[in-house]
Request: fold
Amino acid sequence: MNADAEALRTVKDADRKHVFHSWSAQELIDPLAVAGAEGSYFWDYEGNRYLDFSSALVYTNIGYQHPKVAAAIAEQAGKLCTVAPGFAVDVRSEAARLIAERTPGDLDKIFFTNAGAEAVENAVRMARLHTGRPKVMSAYRSYHGATTTAINLTGDARRFGNDTATAGVVHFWGPFPYRSPFYAGNETEECERALRHLEDTVVFEGPQSIAAIILETVGGAPGVLVPPAGYLAGVREICDRHGIVFILDEVMVGFGRTGTWFAAENWGVTPDLLCFAKGVTSGYVPLGGVAISGAIAETFARRPYPGGLTYSGHVLACAAAVATINVMEEEGVVEQSARTGAELLGPGLRALAERHPCVGEVRGLGTFWALELVRDAATREPLVPYNASGADNAPMAAFGAALKKGGLWPLLAGNRIHVAPPCNISAEDVAKGLEILDEALAVADAHM
Ligand code: PMP
Reply:
């Protein structure tokens, strides 16, 4: 056995014996063993290279192994690996300043967490304490994380296995022109109906009992759901009229993903609390947080905030955040993400839809897109049923296998492929990815 084959066996054996994997039946999975990664690619022990159109879990916004961020983490580790969250320390102050300067409006204070779900948990806690109200409203088509409150706020099927009916969570339908539960007319009408439905839900639940409405600015896991023009402003207005805290969950879409620092900028809307994670460090060291408005920060000016985490604002993570944000600024990554969407990914994906009858819709912006694959373009019947597995999911499994065979690592969800490469992917790699997609879509066409 050569050295690579032996290394592969060691990794796989220990993984199978000792690693308990997320969201999986442990004996039914066979994870790919990754040997290394750089830029928009990672590779396995057998020399297969994959163009990563998933950015890991939509977080390597500047690609893998950016030398400046890796060096900043190493330098910080050599200087000071950790200090308790109660102290002021240079990299934490700097990370908070850089983030606060980029968030919209007066979201000027940053509460650091280790990841996205904890950001959601703390944003909900802040909203409840600020308003003195118990309920929180979220969209059915949403994902907010896997901790207790976050998974119950999550509207998609991942909630089912966890549903403890956490008191006070109320779900509603957001706009989704392609698969609207109201009426798939025009976008303006869709937006008005969705806002009326939300207003009615608020009124019938009792506004005096509702602490917050939480929304993904652009629904990520549920399918790159880009809101129609007036929707977020309409939700802002409903919140203001009823004294409800507006939380935007930008865990997936913050830090350049949609071609702006934060997705809310695309619609000129400012929430009261904004959750972030993932892209803030390109995932090199786990970090998340909540950006807090002046009014909510004031609630805790003379009254202690009853929440905290041992590793809140961990210095290695903050060093990674400072370096990541500086790299994004110096290399124009946010602008590049916008340009790539407008000039390469958008037109390229739409051209694929013209050629492949299985593509029902293309939607997205920046480096954040989804294709809906359908059995029938007229009825929009999905290529596989909602929450499909096993034989029901065979068409999507075949499509995924064709992509991997072509050298592209896809992010598949239900009947969709999400196209979310690093925000700084090169034009050459976009073209290469589109070519691989073109070939694999022929496999999906055959399943119509
Ligand atoms: N909110 C959104 C919008 C997300 O996409 C995710 C993760 N995909 C989370 C929250 C949870 O983040 P984490 O897994 O870091 O806890």
Observations:
- Residues 57, 115-117, 120, 143-145, 216, 220-221, 249, 251-252, 277, 288 surround 4'-deoxy-4'-aminopyridoxal-5'-phosphate (CB under 6 Å).
- The chain has a mean pLDDT of 96.
